[in-house]
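Newbie here. two chains, one complex. Structure please?
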Amino acid sequence: MAGRTTQIPRAAADDQELRDLEEAWSDVEPATARRLLIAGVTAFAAKGYHATTTRDIAEHAGLSPGGLYVHYRSKEELLYRIALTGTRDSLEHVRRAVAGAPGDPESRLRAVVGSLVVRGARYHTTGRVIEYELGSLEDGHRAEVAAMRHEISAIVQDVIEDGARQGVFDVPDVPGTTLAVLSLAIDVARWYRASGRWAPEEIGGLYADLAWRLVRRVP
Amino acid sequence: MAGRTTQIPRAAADDQELRDLEEAWSDVEPATARRLLIAGVTAFAAKGYHATTTRDIAEHAGLSPGGLYVHYRSKEELLYRIALTGTRDSLEHVRRAVAGAPGDPESRLRAVVGSLVVRGARYHTTGRVIEYELGSLEDGHRAEVAAMRHEISAIVQDVIEDGARQGVFDVPDVPGTTLAVLSLAIDVARWYRASGRWAPEEIGGLYADLAWRLVRRVP
């Protein structure tokens, strides 16, 4: 009975994003393993992790029904690889953004928020799958992904704390403001659609401005 | 094969929240129908809509395996009732908050954001279930819930637009800022835990301040 209701796709994967993933994950070898990661994103986005079978994913990847097992132990391992690769990419991206920014707090904050938001928009389907399905990972896998997410949040907090210490920012509650900035960035994956009014860079710029407003010192 | 990975509860339902739901949904009659709504929130939060059976839900509600069907046509109808009731409550709550606030834009904005965030924190398990499972609703049901969400977002946008028109707010991008304010409020359901450092009212106050910072005019 439970499975009988009409399934509505949660969100179609975005074609541009699938092409971008091909490039972003080009170091995943062999190519079939990469194709399975991308097929996993597509399938999980369309009907959720639990309702997706390994056969669905293999079909999306153009493989025989058992094709997933040549490269991944299980559906859970595929989800883990998606979450790990996606989160590691974000972490590296944010680290590069901070390292490449001018040293003042405002520029650093704008660089961090802009980079997270642009990525969140460009890889919104992947981000949504990771976000919604974190709870479906096995304990150890989830802890590994959570540790990387924690590093991202620590970078954001450092930048905010540093600006507050220098007196450039006015931040009554550093952890609360860090959470708010992360919320803005994380939530982009939920609502962003490539067909909407903003290109990833535009929403990145807008949200970098908004994050700056959250912390700026008012004369 | 697909279902064999160890299931990790996504998030345990919060006891205080379950008691609050008893009261908030006290007009749902008979009591067993209400108990099923709350059991649905608990079960969907624990393992997701698709992996939950009507038997799981009936068990949570202390009923016989087929007990759900006495009150709801299907698992989907139960999810729809949860989403409808929860979203309608939020909409009414926000309407009351705006109506009860002093007329100036800052007070109105604080009232709207505070009310959404306090609710998002207090009913965070319910909010997360609704948010994550919207895509599992049948088309007509989803459209009905989406229309109410649209009304909430229109109230937020009106308040921001009004403040900008009066020159009290400085808002270069009204729709983008509305989205950001809604992101802050919606994302609370994802990260909030009753065991954390903030009571619902505290995070409501903090986020009302942050929303004000997003729009305030700087001399």
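Moderator note: Chain B has two domains: 15-70, 75-215. DSSP finds nine helices and no strands in chain B. Thread marked as resolved.
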